[in-house]
Write a sequence for this structure.
């Protein structure tokens, strides 16, 4: 079984070394590099080509979200997980709006972090269980007019939105619907644009809140 390769970026030496050891003990993760210097990350990504990047939120001179945006601008498209002590709703919102593939807490158990990394590699977006209520509240505060935007979705887009609500990856959706991975990606982009959303997590929460079902307005 091939290992999921990651790079871990955290300015606390003991934490990053300890976490690296715990993750590798799972037998599913290989920590190819770790650093406390955000300025080294681009070089490390180029040298090691990991599957997933894990970034601390608050670091000297920058923060994980800003660093992620800089790396995206450089062309790095690998999944990025924010790993932090912060349970602030604003930090969660900022990370997801910026395109993070997950928001994890340092209080999580090591096996939960391993599971999140593996899911992120499969294309899923993951949020710490302790942040779920804040995630729902965050999207409860959004413009309620989005409900009417459901009418703009095609039946196929509505079907894919239903699968997104179950946390399925693009590859899993493609297999289920017997269409290509690229076709699913295109549909997801259209769904996000039509609903004025910015991430798969937003789409999943939107679908759950509006009880979206294929071919109909809702399940209610």
């Amino acid at each position: 079984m091939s290992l999921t390769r990651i790079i871990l970026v955290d300015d606390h030496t003991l934490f990053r070394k300890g976490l690296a050891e715990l993750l590798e003990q799972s037998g599913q993760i290989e920590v190819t590099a770790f650093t406390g210097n955000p300025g080294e990350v681009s070089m490390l990504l180029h040298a090691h080509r990991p599957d997933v990047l894990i970034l601390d939120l608050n670091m000297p001179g920058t923060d994980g979200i800003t660093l992620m945006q800089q790396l995206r601008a450089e062309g790095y498209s690998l999944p990025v997980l924010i790993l932090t002590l912060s349970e602030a709703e604003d930090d969660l919102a900022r990370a997801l709006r910026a395109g993070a593939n997950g928001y994890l807490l340092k209080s999580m158990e090591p096996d939960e972090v391993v599971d999140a990394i593996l899911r992120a590699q499969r294309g899923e977006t993951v949020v710490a269980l302790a942040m779920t209520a804040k995630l729902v509240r965050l999207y409860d505060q959004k413009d309620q007019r989005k409900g009417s935007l459901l009418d703009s979705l095609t039946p196929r887009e509505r079907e894919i939105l239903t699968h997104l609500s179950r946390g399925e990856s693009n590859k899993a959706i493609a297999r289920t619907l017997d269409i290509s991975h690229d076709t699913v990606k295109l549909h997801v982009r259209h769904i996000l644009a039509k609903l004025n959303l910015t991430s798969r997590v937003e789409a999943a929460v939107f679908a759950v809140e509006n009880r979206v079902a294929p071919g109909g307005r809702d399940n209610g």
